[in-house]
Amino acid sequence: MRIEHLLSRDLIQNRALRVLVIGAGGTGSAIVMGLPYLDQAMRVWGHRYGLAVALMDADQVSETNCVRQPFSVSDIGQNKATVLINRINLFWGTSWLAAPNQFHARSFERDYDRCPDLVIGCVDTRAARRVIESSFSRALTRASYWLDLGNNAASGQYVLGQPLNARNPRKAERLRTVSELYPEIVDESGGEDPLPSCSVAEALEHQEPFINQTLAASALAMLAQLFRYGKIAHHGAFFNAKTGQMCALPVDPALWRKAKRRTKLEHSKK
User: Fold this and answer.
1) What is the CATH number of the domain that holds 20?
2) Using CA atoms, how far apart are residues 209 and 30, in angstroms rounded to an integer?
3) 3-state SS of 109-131?
4) Banded model confidence at residue 192, pLDDT cuts 50, 70, 90
5) Burial grade of 190 (CB within 10 A; 0-12, 13-18, 19 or more)
6) By the 8 A CB rule, do 235 and 161 touch?
7) Considering its fold, how many domains does the chain have in total?
8) Most buried one in 148, 150, 179, 241, CB count within 10 A?
9) Is the pLDDT of residue 80 over 70?
10) Domain extent at residue 100
11) Are β-strands 118-121 and 231-232 bridged in parallel, bridged antiparallel, or unpaired?
12) Per-residue burial over 154-171, b = 16 or more CB atoms within 10 Å of its CB, e = otherwise
C-alpha cells in the first residue's frame, strides 16, 4: 500500500539543514549548482536558516570535464569542489564549504556537530557507494537521509532513503535506501563500469548529454516538495533518455518487501 513519507520538523526548525554532496562530477556539479535555488526557496517558505552545504571531491578538473561539466579551460588543474564552491559563494553570497579530499568512512568521526543531515552521493563506482553506506553506522550515525544518484550511458536513477543508524530506528515506514532496495549497486564483486574516457569525443560517445542534469533537477524537485510541504509520495525515480520516460519510485512498503524477496531469491540461485 502506498503511503506518504513525513519530514521530521525538528530537522529544519532552529538551524540550517546540513548537506554533504559527495562527488563534483557530472551529477554532483549539477546538484550543487541547483542547491542555491532550493536554499532561497526554503527561506521564502519560512525555513529562515536555509541550507549549509559542503562539497567533497578530491579530483582535479581535466580537459574532458569541460564538455559535460560546468568547468572551463581556465579551471583545468584546479580542484573541482573548490572551483564550484568558490563560484557559488561569489555569486550567491553564501559561505558554503569545499572539501578537496576523498570521502572515507571516518571523515566526520571526530566532529559529530558537523555530521550532515542529508548526504547526497554522486559517485560512479560500487566501491564508493559501499564506503558511503558503511559510514552511516560510524561517522554519519546522525545523518537523516541518503540521496543517491547514478547513471550509465543512457539511463539513470535517484533514490532517497533513511539509513539505519542512531537517527533512523528500524520501522516499517522508514524510507529504504538504494543499497537496501538494490544491493547490487554496492556489490564490488560485480565489477565496475569502464574507466572515464580520456578524450572529449569518447566522453560524448559513452554518455548521452543532459542525463546528469535531468536526474539532478528531478531529485532537487523531490527535495523541494519534501521541505515545502513536509511530505512526499515518492522517494526516487528512474529515467531513460532514449525513450524519454521517467518512472517514479513510490513510498510503498509492499514494494520494498517485494524488492527484498527478489534479492533473497537471486542470492539463493548463486
Assistant:
1) 3.40.50.720
2) 13
3) CCCHHHCCCEEEECCCCHHHHHH
4) low
5) exposed
6) yes
7) 1
8) 148
9) yes
10) 5-269
11) unpaired
12) ebbbbbbbbbbbebbeee
